[in-house]
Amino acid sequence: MVRHVIVGAGPAAINAIETIREFDGGASEIVLVSDEPAYSRMVLPYYLADQIAYQHIFTGDAAYFDQLKVQTRFGRRVVCVQPSAQQITLDNGEELPFDTLLLATGSSPTIPKIPGADLPGVYPLWTLAHTEAVLQAAAGRPKPTAVLVGAGFIGFIVLNAMYKRGWVLHVVEREPQVLPRMLDRESARLVENWLRQKGVTLHLGTTVSEIQPLSPPDGSRVPRKQLRLANGHALEADIVILATGIRANIDFLAGSGIVVDQGILVNDRMQTNFPNIYAAGDVAQGPDLLGGPPAIHAIQPTAVDHGRVAGANMASHTVRYPGSLLMNILDVCGLQCASFGRWHDPQAEALTLHNPQGPIYRKLLWTGDCITGAIFVGRAQDVGLLNDLGMVKGIIQTQTSLKEWKKFLHDNPFDIRRAYVGAGVAAQLAKTTLLGRPTQPRRYRYLNQQPQPQITHPAAHQAYVQSRVPQ
Ligand SMILES: Cc1cc2nc3c(=O)[nH]c(=O)nc-3n(C[C@H](O)[C@H](O)[C@H](O)COP(=O)(O)OP(=O)(O)OC[C@H]3O[C@@H](n4cnc5c(N)ncnc54)[C@H](O)[C@@H]3O)c2cc1C
Questions:
Q1: CATH classification of 3-108+247-314 is 3.50.50.60, yes or no?
Q2: Which residues, judged by CB distance below 6 Å to any ligand atom, belong to the binding site of ligand 1?
Q3: Minimal CB count within 10 Å: which of 36, 112, 255, 327?
Q4: Which is the closest atom of ligand 1 to the Cα of 9?
Q5: How far is the CA of 449 from the centre of ligand 1 (A)?
C-alpha cells in the first residue's frame, strides 16, 4: 500500500489529506506529523477579539482523522529528511518511511534583536500558545495598553482584534508609512489618518531599541513595560506584539539535498527537486500567477490551493497549478484595505481615484489591457467597494484582456460591474476549477459537531490538551 507522509497540520496539510482521500477513497496509508494540533492560525485574531469559541480554532480532531484513516503523530517535530532512503526522522528518534512526502511546515515569526524581547508580555502573535499568552497578560486589566511593533499585514490583523477589545493601542513602524508591503504612500496616508481618528497612536519611521520591565514581577501579573524608541520617545505598555516579519520553516532540511531559496522551491505540481517530495503553503516557493520568479505568498488561499494541488498529484493525478496571486485584504478598525498582484509595479500604467475626505482610494494598474495590480481603501459600509474589489480580483485572476472596457473604466472608474460582466470575466471564472472538477463539500471537523454559539472553553481545552499528548 502506498504510504504518504505529511509534515505540518495547517491548512496546506489538511487540504492535501482531504484531496488524497477525495481521489483514493482511503486506499493509501497517510501519516501526519506535526508539533502543533490541527488548527487555523487565520482565526486566532477572532479568538483574541472574543468573537469565536475556542473549539472553532481547530480544523480536525481524533475522530475526524480516524474517519479519514490518518495516523497522527501530534507533538512531534521532524528533524531530518533523507530523500534517497525515503525516510524522515522525528525528534523522538522514530523513523518513518514514505513513498511520497509533503512538507507543509509553514513559517515562523522573526524576532527582532531588541533587549527585552523575551520578557513576559512580549510575544509575536503567530500560534495558539502566543494568543493564550496575550489573553493571559491582558487578564484582570480593564483597558490594557498594547504596542504593536511592525505595521504589516499580520500585525494589522492583530491590531484590529485588539481594537475590537477596546485596548489602548500604539504602533511602532520602522518605515515612514503603515503597511509598506501592501499599500502605496497615498493610500497608506488615508489609513494613518483613519487610525489616528480611532485613537491609535502611530510612531512611524522609528524602531524599538529596548524593552524594560517597569516593576519586578509579583507572581500574579505580567509586569508593565517601558519601551525606548530610537527617536528618543518612551512608551509604557502591558502587552507588546512583535510583528516584524516571518521566514519559512526550512532549517530541518539542511543537508537533505532538497533545493531551497527563501522557501522550498517547487514546480507547478508542487514537487521539489525530488519528484516524490512535495511542498505546500507558506514554506513553498512556487509559481506566481502573473509570471516571474517563484514566489512565496504566505496567505491562507495559497496554502489551500497548494495543498489541494499537492494532494491530487500525490494521489497520482497530474494537476498543474497556474500559480498563486498575491492578495492582502484587511479590515483596519473599520476601514477596508486590499491590494492584489503587482500593486507596486512602476512599469504599469496607473488609473487612480483619490478622495481623502471619503476616504476613498482606488488604483488599477494596467499592463496593456489587462489589470495586473490594484489597491482599494474605503469604508466598510461601502458595499460597492467590497463588490468591486471582489470583481477586480476575478479580473486579475483570469487575466482577462479587457479591450474596449479599459477605456470604459477610465471614463467610469466606479462601474467595475459592467466591465466585469461585459468582458466575460464571470463566465470565465464559473468554469475555472483548481483540480478540473468541482470541490467536494467540507464537513465540520472538530468534536463531531456543528459550530456552537457558546464558548465552551474548559471542555474544548481538555480535548486540546489530550490531542497534544504524543502517541
Ligand atoms: C494571526 C494570523 C492571522 C492571519 N490572518 C490571515 C488572513 O486573514 N488571511 C490570510 O490569507 N492569511 C492569514 N494568515 C496567514 C495564514 O494563517 C498562513 O498563510 C497559513 O496558516 C499557512 O498555512 P500552512 O499550512 O502553510 O502553515 P501553518 O498553518 O503555519 O502550519 C504549519 C504547521 O507545521 C508545523 N511544523 C513546522 N515545522 C515542523 C517540523 N519540523 N515538524 C513538525 N511540524 C512542524 C508548525 O508548527 C505548524 O503547526 C494569518 C496568520 C496569522 C498568524
A1: yes
A2: 7-13, 33-36, 41-42, 44-45, 77-78, 104-106, 125-126, 154, 157-158, 249, 252, 281-283, 298-301, 303
A3: 255
A4: 33
A5: 24
- The answer as to CATH 3.20.20.100 being correct for domain 122-244 is no
| Least confident window among 30-44, 133-147, 425-439 | 425-439
Residue of 52, 59, 258, 282 best suited for mutating to test ligand 1, as the one with most atoms within 8 Å of CB = 282
What is the pTM for the complete model shown?
0.93
CB 446 within 8 A of CB 61: yes
Helix (H) or strand (E) holding 407: helix 404-411
Residue type, 145: T
In a 13 Å sphere around the CA of 470, the CA atoms on its Cβ side amount to: 9
Q: Where along the chain do its domains lie?
A: 3-108+247-314, 122-244, 334-428
β-strand pairing of 107-109 with 246-248: antiparallel
**Which ligand 1 atom sits closest to the C-alpha of 300?**
11
CA 9 / ligand 1 centre spacing (Å): 9
How far apart are the CA of 424 and the centre of ligand 1, in A? Answer: 35
Nearest Cα to Cα of residue 59 among 457, 462, 449, 445: 445
Top CATH class of 334-428 equals: alpha beta
What is the per-residue pLDDT across 277-320, written as a single tens digit (0 to 9) for each?
999 999 999 999 999 999 999 999 999 999 999 999 999 999 99
